[in-house]
Design brief:
The chain is an alpha/beta fold. The chain is built from 15 helices and eleven strands. The strands form two sheets. It has a seven-stranded mixed sheet, with helices on both faces. Helix 6 packs across helix 7, helix 6 crosses helix 11 and helix 13 crosses helix 15. It binds pyridoxal-5'-phosphate (PLP). The site of pyridoxal-5'-phosphate has 15 residues, from helix 6.
Length: about 475
């Protein structure tokens, strides 16, 4: 039977307008919905047929099922009452950029497969470098440059692969050792495992009283390894840890890396974007001596998932590690060497046109708009911090440097779990926990696009009522 597309151009136009309306209505009402999905395992699967339809269904029926089937099973990350994990911003501008990228359907593996995809991406990395006040060594006009990846986890992996490439031929895989703080994100260990190293080839360096990596312990661990004929080759420092936004002392860590020839990757996934506002540029300290750096606009800079920026000071070892050129990918521009082929900066071959949404976000906000977005959340976090600090039942656990407030009820772990569960079951807000110094700690990460003072006040009132 000949193929007949279910949607022609006019039908797409109609359905598209309706879907954009649906999204705008969703954003208007999301505040009223229970933030954490109130369903159990299998509840949603039960209302989805076990097999695909034999014949096509009307578009209206499909779209109606978004409300019936999907919405009840959503945790509403775009709710202004979402304070869990870290935020995953989806601003209107970025969603339109995402839609346009899908409509263009460009696959930007090579410069030649869509020059605009590559060249806009390069420009956006340089724009962001300036907006964040990052060192010039990461600029695309030099030996290094930036790329937009799917995640900071991918950034950690490709940094590790580039570091491994740099020592390849001199050391065997089994002799290599990587280091990160005990508070580093789990993606550090995942990168080590994917790269084919054993988990015990990653040393977790103890944190100090503020949960930042102790550079003396790092140096000691490296010396112990060198004495045992192992090769320290990679260190991942974190600026803004997941549990408490602790800042590893990058300048001191960079000095240790330099002494022992180790690659320094800095993970600024969440907090790095705060540097758009000059008063938070302390987050960049030491980056001029880092080999690579990651930040995620898809967390706290208005750009919907996925959009993770990765910069490298020297792209040669990265490209050497990741470049494989079969005949069918060869083309005149790549052969001439004057263009960037971003396929050589990532694990997959294919790549999405992620730069469009960042371009839309940056241009519609301007540097001033981005700054006030960040400043607003940090001010709200400081208010919550002050309010909880002055309450006899709560204590602040780690300094509120950005927009994450870490706190606990003085009554112990069971009390904190009770409060967390009561908040999340109420549907009025969503918070998650971590463990610091062996104790349960609650986290309120302020940073959703639509969060205002009244939402943070409501969270504070909820906490006080449960104390
Ligand atoms: N690094 C830090 C400090 C994080 O907090 C997170 C996620 O929360 C990640 C890395 C992983 O980010 P992604 O999901 O982009 O891999």
């Amino acid at each position: 039977m000949p193929y007949e597309p279910p949607m022609d151009g006019d039908a797409f136009r109609r359905a598209g307008h309706e879907l954009v309306d649906w999204i705008a209505d969703y954003w208007d009402r999301v505040e009223e919905l229970p933030v954490l999905a109130q369903v159990g395992p299998g509840d949603i699967a039960e209302v989805i047929p076990a097999t695909a339809p034999k014949t096509g269904e009307p578009w209206e029926t499909i779209v109606a099922d978004v409300d019936r089937v999907i919405v009840p099973g959503l945790t509403h990350w775009q709710s202004p009452n979402f304070f869990a994990y870290f935020p995953a911003n989806a601003s209107p501008e970025s969603v339109l950029g995402e839609l346009l990228a899908a409509g263009l359907g460009v696959q930007g593996m090579l410069w030649a497969t869509s020059p605009a995809c590559t060249e806009l991406e390069t420009r956006m990395c340089d724009w962001m470098l300036d907006l964040l006040g990052l060192p010039d060594r990461f600029r695309s006009t030099g030996p290094g440059g930036g790329v937009i990846l799917d995640s900071a986890s991918s950034g950690a992996l490709i940094a590790l692969l580039a570091a491994r490439e740099r020592v390849a031929g001199q050391w065997r895989m089994g002799e290599l050792v990587a280091y990160a703080s005990e508070h580093a994100h789990s993606s550090a260990l995942k990168a080590v495992k994917i790269a084919g190293l054993q988990p015990d080839q990653l040393r977790l360096i103890p944190g100090d009283g503020e949960h930042a990596m102790d550079p003396v312990a790092l140096r000691d661990a490296m010396i112990d390894d060198i004495v045992e004929d192992r090769r320290p080759f990679f260190v991942q420092a974190t600026t803004g840890t997941t549990s408490s936004t602790a800042l590893d002392p990058v300048p001191a860590i960079a000095a240790v890396c330099k002494d022992h020839g180790a690659w320094l990757h800095v993970d600024g996934a969440f907090a790095g974007v705060a540097a758009v506002a000059h008063e938070f540029r302390f987050v960049n300290e030491g980056l001029a001596r880092a080999d690579s750096y990651s930040v995620n606009p898809h967390k706290w800079l208005l750009t919907n998932f996925d959009c993770s920026l990765f910069w490298i000071a020297d792209r040669q070892p990265l490209n050497a590690a990741l470049s494989v050129t079969p005949e069918y990918l060869r083309n005149a521009a790549s052969d001439a060497g004057g263009v960037i082929d971003y396929r050589d900066w990532q694990v997959p071959l294919g790549r999405r046109f992620r730069a469009l949404k960042l371009w839309f976000v940056i241009r519609s906000h301007g540097a001033d708009g981005l700054r006030s977005f960040i400043r607003n959340h940090v001010a709200l976090a400081c208010d919550l911090d002050a309010r909880l600090a002055s309450h006899p039942a709560f204590e602040i656990v780690a300094p509120t440097r950005f927009s994450l407030v870490t706190f606990r009820h003085v009554g112990g772990d069971a009390e904190n779990e009770r409060i967390r569960d009561a908040i999340n079951a109420s549907g009025r807000a969503y918070v998650t926990h971590t463990v610091l110094d062996g104790r349960i700690v609650l986290r309120a990460a302020i940073g959703a696009v639509r969060t205002e003072a009244r939402h943070v006040n409501a969270l504070a009132e909820l906490l006080e009522s449960l104390a």
